[in-house]
Amino acid sequence: MAEAATSFSLIGKTLARDVFNAHGLLLLTAGSVLSRPDINLLLSHKIAAVDITASSEMHFTSLQQSENVDTQIESLLAKRGAAETYTNAMALTKELFAKVTEVYIPPLRQFTDAFFPLLNQVMKETGLLTPIYLLEGSEKYTYRHSINVGILSALIAKLMDRTPEEIILLGQAGLMHDVGKMLIPQNILMKPDRLTPEEFDIMKQHTVLGAKILSSMEGTNEVIVQSALLHHERRNGTGYPQGRKGAEIPIESQIVGVADVFDAICSDRVYKTRTSPYEAAQLLWQQTLDGLLNPEIVTRFINYIATLYVGCQAMLTDGTQVEVVLIHVDEPMRPLVRRGEEYLDLRKHRSLSIEKMIS
Q1: Cis peptide before 37 (omega within 30 of 0)
Q2: Host domain of residue 125
Q3: Do residues 139 and 65 lie in contact, with contact meaning Cβ atoms separated by under 8 Å?
């Protein structure tokens, strides 16, 4: 472990200790791989130096982070009776994804057997989504992301009044949407920095590879195959791999695409820290205004997500802690919050926004 001055030269380095601001607020956790937004965060809070993990300590740090994620799941979900269900789904999903090769593909039933108990629980108590986005750290991100996108895709289908069969199918499609990443080289998949154009071209192939894998999977469905192939397509034609536009993109693929974007923004990843569901909702809406996402899907989804967090604690962009008190119908992403004895209407305080949820 070594102390290093805070600068952009630390991008890609791993924190050896938690970092707190002058008010005792946790900014970044030990084991975080520093990204450009992390450095900006440290500089904005006037953190002059941080402790960085030496290369010989990297394996130990990774193990600690893995334990921390499991511990967080137990802490956050135990009271709701979902910790074991989520942990089991994550472990089995990881095990099954690891078995995927170009010559062997486990049947769909094995994936859904691991996932359905959790999906059923969330569908009965959708408030289980709130603690999921309090998890810190990028450990096991690929598997958590697959599970979360499956849950969100099914939830969106429910919000759009789809049949029970379609809700289940969208859950399966969301769960399997990134299976093609199992055939992407790990040095690209886990790179803690911006991909080069050549590396991004390789990464984009996960859509085609995923569709190929799922086409050969026992028990597959065309919706599941198409969602893996097309979840990065955008309504204005700027997506990939085929550059489809508008109605050329199946509605199911658009639903999975919205769920994919939302979860990615709300989760810590190897090259970025998570942001709040409110900021994620704002970014979804901006992408909708820019013609990328389906407004019918996004409108229903963000209004629902905003209401889930009433009563929850959050951190504003100025580093202060608040409680979400009331959601405004006209701007659900800018709620009324309470900071101590003071009430702030974020519609009027435009320089402030919710950076991340705390509890």
Answers
A1: no
A2: 68-274
A3: yes
Per-residue buried b or exposed e for 227-257, using 16+ beta carbons within 10 Å of the residue's own CB: bbbbbbbbbeeebbeeebeeeebbbbbbbbb
d(CA 346, CA 354): 9
Q: Indicate if 124 and 269 belong to the same structural domain.
A: yes
HSE-up of residue 179 (Cα within 13 Å, Cβ side): 36
Residues 26, 81: one domain?
no
Q: How far apart are CA 218 and CA 334, in angstroms?
A: 45
- Asked whether the beta carbons of 37 and 23 are under 8 A apart, the reply is no
On whether residue 99 sits in a domain, the answer given is yes
Does 199 lie in the same domain as 90? yes
For 237: left if phi > 0, alpha if psi spans -120 to 50, otherwise beta; the answer is left
* Tokens describing residue 355: 């950076």
Cα separation of 258 and 284, whole Å? 8
pLDDT per residue as tens digits for the range 221-238 = 999 999 999 999 999 999
Tell me how far the alpha carbon of residue 241 is from its chain's centroid: 22
Bridge partner residues of 28 (DSSP)? 19
Q: Kindly state the helix (H) or strand (E) to which residue 317 belongs, with its residue range.
A: none
Provide the domain count of the chain.
3
- Pair 338, 201 in one domain: no
SS3 percent helix, strand, coil of the chain, rounded to 5, is: 55, 10, 35
Most confidently modeled range among 56-60, 101-105, 349-353: 349-353
pTM tops 0.85: no
Q: What is the pLDDT of residues 235-260, one digit of tens each?
A: 999 999 999 999 999 999 999 999 99
Q: Is the dihedral of CA 254, 260, 263, 266 positive or negative?
A: negative
Q: 74 and 17 in one domain? A: no
> Which tokens is 352 given?
């402030």
